[in-house]
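Appendix C reproduces, verbatim, an entry submitted by the partner laboratory led by Prof. M.T., so that reviewers can inspect both the input and the predicted structure.
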Amino acid sequence: MKLTTASRTFQLLSRILDVRTSTEPFLPTAAEKPSIPLGAVSQPFPRATPESQGVSSRHIQNFLEELNRDRELYAQSVMILRNGNVICEAAYGAQNLQAAKYTFSACKSVVSLAVGLLADDGALSVEDEVSSFFEESGSTALRRRLRGMTVEDLLTMRSGVLFTEAEALTEADWARRFLGDYLKSESGAEFAYNSLNTYMLSAIVCRRTGRSLTEFLRERLFEPMDITDIHWETCPKGIEKGGWGLYIRPEDLAKLGQLVMNGGLWQGKRLISQEYLTAATTAHAQVPETVGDFNYGYQIWVGRHENTFLFNGMLGQNVLGFRDTGILVLTHAGADTDFQESRYFEIVSRYFGGAFPDSLPEDAGAQAELSAAVCVFSAYNRETEPAGEAAAPFLDRSFAVRDERSASVGLLPLALQALYNDYTAGVVSVAVSGKCGTPELIYREADALYRLPVGLGRPVVVQLDFRGNVFHVAALGRFTHDEEERPVFYIQLDFIETPCVRIIKLVMDGRRMLLRQTETPGVPYVSGKLCKAAQSPLYKPLLLMAAGGTEEDFLRYKTLQILSPELVCEEEG
């Protein structure tokens, strides 16, 4: 890490950790997330009964119920295919399978497909040196230092470059910083997961085609496969981020997984070569076993003990292909994990890692039970509930926030604020209106006003515009009491295109109200990250200065301050 980058990273972290002030970003804020419609995919897979594809409906129901019981997995949606047929799909709670979902690192595998297309065209080779694509970016000394770093090193996470996603939050020219940064190890020698490797592949695709990554893939894959309504975020220079930032509907993402399963064929037409996909799904880099049961191919994870491939994104986006049986399992979640550390992979392997017959006798009773279970999982199948007398203490009252920590508290989850470089100006007041029958949360920040109808029993979905970043939000609430018999309005806001959930609790405490907020992924994930950073000789001094300490209990306390605040509010008027 260069000193200038280290200084900026330290300053940004210090601003985020200071709960008394609004966070001021280093880079100009620009809207990145457009409104993406909720809807079915344009060309869906055929649907089939599980038994017709050799899988028991009861087996699938047990799998779905086990995921639902494990609260640490925070499962949001599941889609299971065999032989290109959808045999089950389910969404939990307020989630929606028709939303274009944020993929995080699962889209790295999509970048690999773009590289494969160029390799098929003869437009590049995985043996090409990276510096050859950026002749203007470096001196002779720079090219000499990068000599030997190839496209394959980027594909396999073995570039050795230190410049990472966290540092990119304070840098405008990512390619220049990547090419000019220090090398942790010799290129090609050591696996070190770093999303900027994928970003450089995205930049190479743009350089070689003269078009954006999205435009190139739209012509070669998205349009032939009828994949629509996708959005890929870009860096400050307008290049797709590559390693993260792709919004795509689950079923459309499953199409890309099925393309790999089919060896590059889509509906009988070859879109990408078998040769490239064989190389892409072969382990080239050995990964520490602490990460999970997968090694690394070309931006695609490869099973260490099973014949599987995996598109994987942090918090639980997975497209897992069992190549011996043709079963593809796609899941989205909000778990507090980066790679394959959760129990999910043990569970999915236990259910789908074995052999399956071509077909089974149809079982109408089991199919009906599976269908009923899927309905129960979704909150949209529940009845709307009346507000009742428990709502009275909250309705048609407005409370001003009287707390010095309010400047750092906003409606948008902090994870999304950091992701979009767009931080709150601070909460000013909170009100609940009952004039329209459905309770409406009125959340005012220093520079914005948000109005959310809150469903009781059944979620209500609205679009919210956060300075040009537009999200679909499902609001579900209930009026209840806490252990001290104080009235509570509990509200869960699912940002259904992302893994993020905002929890708001309004607690009546005598003549004042307490505003409590938290989010998922939240304290366990962030405090774990900070504690891990505190063990690094590189980051420990920065964290010590930014946070004021590096002890585990202290870092958890700081995380609770920013992610789970409790603010005192006084009634207005």
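The chain has a mean pLDDT of 93. Additional entries are available on request from the coordinating office.
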